[in-house]
Amino acid sequence: LFEPQSICVIGASDKKNKIGYKIMENIKSGGYLGKVYPINPNLEEILGYKVYKNISDINEIDEIDIAVIAVPEPLVLNALKTCPSKKIKYVLVITSGFSEIGKNKEEKDLVDFAHQHNIRILGPNIFGHFVNKSNINASFASSNIPKGNVALISQSGALGSALIGETGEENIGLSAIVPLGNKCDIDESDLIEYLQNDDSTKVILIYMEGVKNGEKLIPLLKETTMKKPVIIIKSGRSKKGAQAAASHTGSLSGSDEIFQSIMNQTGVHRPENVVQALQWAKFLANTPMPKGENTLIITNGGGVGVMAADACEKYGVQLYDNYRSLEEAFAPYVPEFGSVKNPIDVTGSVGIEGYEKCIEAAVKHPDIHAILCLGCEHALFQEEALKSTIEKVHNLYGHIKPIQYVFYGGKSVKSAARYLKSKGIPMYFDVYDAISCLGELFRTYRHQQIRHTFESDDSVGIEINYPAISDILRGVQNDHRQFLLANESRGLMEAAGISMPKSFVAKTVDEAIHYFKKIGTTVVMKIVSKDIVHKSDAGGVRLNIENEQELMNAWEVIMLNARKYSPQAVIRGIEICEQINLDTEAIIGGRRDSNYGPMLMFGSGGIYVEILKDVAFRSNTFSKAEIHNMLKETKLYPLLLGVRGMGPKDIDSIIDVILRVALILKHFKQISDIEINPLVIYEKNSGVKAVDARILIK
Length: 698
Hints:
Blueprint: E1 6-10, H1 19-29, E2 35-39, E3 45-46, E4 49-50, E5 66-69, H2 73-81, E6 90-93, H3 104-116, E7 120-122, E8 128-131, E9 136-139, E10 147-154, H4 157-169, E11 174-179, H5 188-195, E12 203-208, H6 214-224, E13 230-234, H7 239-249, H8 256-266, H9 274-286, E14 294-299, H10 302-314, E15 318-319, H11 323-330, E16 344-345, H12 352-364, E17 370-376, H13 383-397, E18 403-408, H14 411-422, E19 427-428, H15 431-450, H16 466-478, H17 486-496, E20 503-506, H18 509-519, E21 523-529, E22 541-545, H19 548-565, E23 571-578, E24 584-593, E25 597-604, H20 609-612, E26 615-619, H21 624-632, H22 637-641, H23 651-667, E27 671-681, E28 688-690, E29 693-697
Parallel strand pairs: 1-2, 1-5, 5-6, 6-7, 10-11, 10-12, 12-13, 14-15, 14-16, 14-17, 17-18, 18-19
Antiparallel strand pairs: 3-4, 8-9, 8-11, 20-23, 21-22, 21-23, 24-25, 24-27, 25-26, 27-28, 27-29
Helix pairs in contact: 2-3, 5-6, 9-15, 10-15, 12-13, 13-14, 16-17, 18-19
């Protein structure tokens, strides 16, 4: 697909207003040196290429690497059926009008035939593809694609085509452009698998509307981001956006919260918009990796320096703060009324030439790893001096350490900035844009430095009674249920080593009194019925039962409410459960997502879970460090560290419970959902209690 030696175009045309002509024109003007075979039963020659009536008429070659199909939708399948005669490996289906408008069967017919003949399909509903190192532009997009080291993958053909123009405007060179269209076969995972080892690609930029095989994508992203940055623009963040994405390409956007958590876990960069994505791509592709995280700001104005410091905090950029070292390095170049604290303020008395010595000193300083050069226009600034000095400085030092430039001013400053940007120098018009890019560079640095610590298996040594869990699940399946009753969930939790309050199921009031005495403290009473899943909604829960009379009264009320809520319900009894002392409440979950496979969840628990929506997710992991990172993404986490005189909570026990849930998901594929809510978290070294557990099976 990326290095074809031969290509045929089914639907090639000599009419300039046809897609088949534009594809042929781009192949020729792009300088492709391989064999080209246009297919059209009514023509003899196109742009100097001999035209063949059918693929089978090509006698000079036995195998063709790629076929491009650009014929009307009703003719696509027949065109595909001609491809096996030349052992074609990849087919680009340009034609639209398939699953994106509801023609799922027609699209499936293409895939079925292709797979029967070892053919992979890219598309349908695409504009073609471009590969720089092969000089191939088999598309009807622009013929003037800037060449460079950013690979662009796009699920949207129109946006992908537009991005080609945007990259040209931003002076971003491309190593490859591959639209995915409907993703009926080849998807982003297949392309990433190749591009991660492609030396001509330094950054992979993806526009995505939906994920069809998340389980395959996640490990690939983990592997790829250790080698080069991956940037994903993912639409469908909102409910309306997800609906629009589904109607556009037939893909489901999926939960954006889950997607964002997976991006955090895999080290992928996720920008807010296209402009930010292009800025990040350009900077990450052309900037040396820092050797540490200390940044120095050099400025001629205090205000812009303060703005930069704010932006650094926002984007996670660490400022170097060793004052003695800074004074020693920069005092010779800063006026007495300036500042050698970070930001270094050279004041307005220094022209652009004065920056050169400070930048040189920063480059030589072993503990400074990135430099941000800021300036505000004043009388000493000259356009030509700004251009020549920055160009000279960056050519000397830009390959050694990350250096960025932001200069505010009028017409002459903006003119100089545009000139420097055209030379590939990281010049920005706003400090937040610059530091946003720098923050992503440091994020890549951190990810590649510590990622290996997040791949450890910390579940070794955790004891779980797997046979007992198997017995419980077998009983549920034999009863033809898709959920566990309260006592079954409790049994599973106990087998997994997850602590719950003492509990018994009573079938009579006398049994209830017996168990109340056995527990010996305040209890909670809950209805037990396979026909009543949401106990509170049915009025089947009573709290704070402290004596026998309260217990007998509660028994009558619960039974009455349950029969009124579901007259046909089979009631197995009432659970008598130890009421525990409440503390910080969390929710822990495990689910088998249709896109991403087994997922873990952690967040703020209790009765307001759905209102607070304070949760984070991870693809199933057995790494304590990765689980701890998941905890950090929630608003609950600061409370776990201890606030307002309250001591820190038992984070180790939380992680232990999540690891046990992860192991259950791994070993029991029939379990689709586990929800522990609330998990009551006590102070450090005091443990946790799973108050309730809801478990569903397929």
